[in-house]
Write a structure and sequence with these properties.
It contains twelve helices and no strands. With 229 residues, the chain is mainly alpha-helical. The protein is elongated and about 70 Å long.
Length: 229
């Protein structure tokens, strides 16, 4: 079976059933219907919003040290920067220096804070245990998660794809790396390599794979105007 047949198998979908030689990729989260989150202008956190966020911050700051200047003020500054697409040099807020807020954001992102918050706001409106105040912060949480791609890598993009929250992506989905499709194509190429020399792919098949790898690898640069609001 040629590469083109493998790619177009199962109703022309590259996400065909995995081969016998390629283990199935784990899928802990189901795909949801994709949507953009309506923008929300920045304002300081209300008491109810802060109370809905505080338990997640305690999990992210596992070292147990009190945060100088207050975690609430730092989170306010983070949401202001990410929602307004400001540089971190403009992050100074409530007497806390900009570089301190930038370091705090990277620490929270590395600890998975914004990924956990994104999973919570992605839950159905009928799901129990998600405060309405936390749901109202969806746009800011998406913006914070979107910026965390620079800290945690492509895994943040893959999570936003699975949750269907397009505002948490750093650009249009079709311009971003897709590790699932790239992994599927690598598996197909591995099968073809194992079949050599009995079965030799044609030039057009190899050219197709090169083109698909470029597509699945995403664009190196995305115009700022294409980043979600």
């Amino acid at each position: 079976m040629g590469i083109f047949s493998l790619l177009l198998g199962n109703e022309c979908g590259i996400l065909a059933a995995p081969s016998r030689t390629e283990p199935a990729m784990p899928s802990p989260l189901r795909f949801r219907r994709s949507r953009y989150t309506p923008p929300r202008p920045w304002t300081p956190l209300t008491d109810a919003e802060w109370e809905s966020l505080a338990p997640y911050l305690h999990r992210a700051d596992g070292r147990g040290r009190p945060i100088e200047g207050g975690a609430r003020a730092r989170l306010d500054a983070v949401f202001r920067v990410v929602s307004q697409k400001l540089p971190w040099t403009a992050a100074a807020h409530a007497g806390v220096p900009a570089d301190t807020i930038g370091r705090q954001y990277r620490r929270w992102a590395g600890a998975g804070l914004f990924a956990r918050l994104l999973k919570q706001v992605a839950k159905s409106r009928r799901a129990r245990g998600v405060p309405e105040a936390l749901r109202g912060l969806e746009h800011w949480i998406c913006a914070a998660h979107r910026r965390s791609v620079r800290v945690v890598g492509v895994g943040a993009t893959a999570l936003a794809r699975r949750l269907g929250l397009l505002s948490a992506l750093p650009g249009p989905p079709w311009l971003l790396p897709d590790p699932v499709l790239s992994g599927r194509l690598r598996g197909i190429l591995r099968e073809q390599a194992e079949a050599l020399p009995e079965q030799r792919p044609g030039r057009w098949e190899l050219a197709l794979c090169r083109r698909l790898l470029r597509v699945f690898g995403g664009r190196r640069r995305i115009h700022p105007g294409l980043v979600p609001a």
